[in-house]
Amino acid sequence: MRGIFIRIYLAFLVTSLVATLVTVLLAMYYRQWSNDSVNLIAPTGGYISAAELMLQRGGEPLLLEWLLTFERHPSVNAYVFDDQGVSLTPAVPVDVLSYAFAADSYQARVNPLGQTEILVKAPLHSLDGRVYLLVVEFLHPLAVFNLPIYLALGLVASLLLFALWSYVLSRYLTRPLLSLRRSVRAFADGQWPVRIAPRVLARPDEIGELGREFSQMASRLQRLISDQRQLLRDVSHELRSPLARSAVALELARLDAVPEQQEYLDRIELETGRLNELIEDLLHMARLETVQDRQHWQRFDCAELLQQVVADARFERPDSPLQLQLPAGAVTLQGDPRLLLSAFENIIRNALLHTAPQTSVDISLQVAAVAEIRIRDHGPGVPEHLLADLLRPFVRSEQARERSPDTLQQGHRGFGLGLAIAQRVIQHHDGTLQLGNHPQGGLQVLIRLPVVV
């Protein structure tokens, strides 16, 4: 909502500033070229008649008393000069003096941009034949007020008004979007069926249409995912059953086999085991893509988990050295330790397969804002343009780099699913997995996982 609020607020602010500027310019143009100045000059006839009447009835004292009444008028001032050019009032503005003694007869002066908007002068005749000069000054409306204070008050009032209206409007626009976002997040977390607020579905505008489209899409995807899960269960059962029968038949065949047939039976057993592993990996990866259940997550120490993985790897390959560096304290993570254990095993086994003979696989754990696990081998590395392909399913690493002669002789062949499964496990735990070539040679896997404080 913050982004929409700021945009609406700035839109109102800019619109008001432009509207105010245009209004002021039009008002000044109207004052300059319209008859409004004539309407302002018209009341001066009454002022002139009243001043001349005061002068004839009471002389200068009564006229001076009449002039003092203008001090209570906020936008009109009056000044009188005698036949010697002396003002009856002590304080006379410079503009009034210059206009009073200007040689432009008795024409009115209009200046809508100045403090004095209009000046009008006229002669006053006393009973003794003396001629006085009356000058009537109309002040600009903005000059009457304390402009800085009024501008500040108006600016604060407009900012508060725009803020309130922008908040109401942004809440009106973002409330259904926030509801949709919660529904999308629940759908992404696997909380089915997805329920969208009825008030969003009932809206007749584009937001309501979006909610209805999303509801239909979620229903279709839910059916597809349910069908996919059922298909995985059926495939698992249908494939594992004949493989189990094949394994039993293979053991029965060994009982009657001659020595010349043992090599072929061993080959059948090897391929059957590989097919079992492939099915298990496929089902595992499919489960990671469709199941996002986090209810069974728990806290655990990442250092202890890595120690367990390294201990298992050393037991399986005692001739392959592994170097493990851990921080002094515990590194607490939140997640499924069984899944992360499997992901670390896949990466470390892949590193052991490709590291050069008599070299180690280096594993380190560091803690900054996140937990960083680095796993590096001393193999030939991978061309830079092929690094991203290693995280795709069924892309075997030997397509990008050659394995060591020892591992080739041992008959190790992967299906290109280990790193793909590991990446999905890391993403499931809100982490990242990056591949890169170490500056000193070999492939380095960098895993970042959020730390629990």
From TrEMBL:
GO terms for cellular component: plasma membrane. Its EC number is 2.7.13.3. PROSITE patterns: HAMP (PS50885), HIS_KIN (PS50109). It catalyses: ATP + protein L-histidine = ADP + protein N-phospho-L-histidine. It comes from the Bacteria. It is found in: Cell membrane. It holds the Pfam family HisKA. This is histidine kinase. The lineage of its organism: Bacteria, Pseudomonadati, Pseudomonadota, Gammaproteobacteria, Oceanospirillales.
